[in-house]
Amino acid sequence: METIQFEGIKTGLKQSKDGYMLSLAVHPDDLPDNLIRDFVGARYMVVMVRIGDDEQPVKQVRKSDPAVSMAGMVCRDSEFWSYVFIRDEEIIGSEAECAEWMKMYFDIESRADLKTNEVAREKFIKFKEDFEQWKK
Question: pTM of the prediction?
Answer without folding.
Answer: 0.53
